[in-house]
Specification:
It comes from Parageobacillus thermantarcticus. The chain is an alpha/beta fold and 307 residues long. The chain has twelve helices and nine strands. Strand 6, helix 7 and strand 7 form a beta-alpha-beta unit. The longest helix has 17 residues.
């Protein structure tokens, strides 16, 4: 079984309504691919493209949620909406769980009501920023590198109360530390290690250790330029290198995968789409015990679900 903490298929389905979630060639994540790879839980991110006007962003988030239900949940009886561990436990052998997540709080502006609305609609995890600044915090590419705003602290506190994940992927370093100080259920859904690829989106060793001390999770991502500086040569071996480094820091029970499929144009060799998870599984089995492989692929993220 596989628990994938991040993909951007909803964004692609929103941008091109002609795409088929069943087996669309221009999607990395499709129903057919998930079934073939034995993915048990797939997180679907609500990511609002940068060119969407500020006043339209909440509406676009609602449109993506509508697409999630109409094009994925309602159309495929074996796809089941997941809001809790109980829902995962209820999945039949051939059923696939689908979770909603938010990538960046741009959609909520400065409104806690909008955040609460998205949570009531079933969003299980909230990424505070994408790469730039919003009303919550600065992102990883924002030059001033500021931390959480007062509104951002309110957002994190509400996520704590609602027992939802606070996703620190994409945050500036200052915002990461601010969020980690108060977040009760922190994860980095799709981030790699700065040690092996010094990209602003990757986490330094002290950040990874701190995330583990807060009983958080890090999802190793397959984006080539987060895997290696020689991104054109990125391969499964690079994924294993980042995984092993997190384990060496004491993170064997705090690491999983957040592919970022459909959120990248170029792919790592052997990880061209969700079907290719079988290649990763084969490589993991060469280096780790059956229990460790099961933890990395599924159990760790499952165990860290807040509810």
């Amino acid at each position: 079984m596989i628990f994938d903490a991040h993909c951007d298929a909803l964004m692609k389905l929103w941008m091109d309504r002609s795409l088929s979630f069943h087996d669309g060639q221009h999607l990395h994540v499709t129903f057919s691919a998930l079934a073939e790879a034995k993915v048990k839980v797939q997180c679907f991110a609500i990511y609002i493209p940068e060119n969407v006007p500020e006043e339209a962003r909440f509406t676009v988030a609602l449109e993506m949620i509508d697409l999630f239900f109409e094009r994925i949940i309602d159309r495929f009886p074996l796809m089941k909406f997941i809001r809790s561990k109980r829902d995962i436990d209820a999945l039949e052998e051939n059923e696939i769980g689908a979770m909603l997540t938010l990538e960046g709080c741009d959609a909520i502006g400065t409104s806690l009501v909008k955040l609460k609305t998205l949570l009531r609609l079933g969003v299980s995890s909230v990424g505070l920023t994408w790469n730039w600044a919003n009303a919550v915090a600065d992102g990883a590419w924002e030059q001033r590198g500021a931390g959480l705003t007062e509104f951002g602290k309110q957002v994190v506190q509400h996520l704590n109360e609602a027992k939802r994940w606070v996703d620190v992927s994409h945050l500036s370093e200052k915002a990461f530390w601010d969020a980690l100080e108060i977040a009760q259920f922190p994860i980095a859904s799709h981030s790699n290690t700065y040690r092996f690829c010094p990209h602003p989106r990757n986490l330094r060793d002290e950040q990874i250790r701190a995330l583990m001390e807060k009983n958080g999770m890090i999802g190793i991502t397959f984006v080539p330029y987060f895997l290696t500086k020689e991104s054109e040569r990125a391969a499964i071996s690079d994924v294993l290198r980042h995984l092993e480094h997190v384990c060496s820091l004491g993170g064997a029970r705090h690491v999983g995968f957040g592919s970022d499929f459909d959120g990248m144009e170029e792919t790592a060799k052997g990880l061209e789409n969700a079907r290719c998870y079988v290649n990763l599984v084969n490589e993991l089995q060469k280096h780790y015990s059956e229990e460790e492989v099961e933890r990395f692929l599924f159990r760790n993220f499952y165990d860290h679900l807040p509810q």
